[in-house]
Design goal:
elongated; mainly alpha; 2 helices
Amino acid sequence: MSDFLDKAKEKAAELKDKAEDLVEKVADKLPDSVTDKIEKIIPGDKDGDGN
């Protein structure tokens, strides 16, 4: 069972990384006005520095 959980955690981490990459690619294509509106609705790490 522990092996299954380790594999599940590994896959979840891989999916998280892929989702973050996808979000970054989409954000790069959006105009600044749109990303500013999204940032007001969903605050987050806009510049990717972890803060």
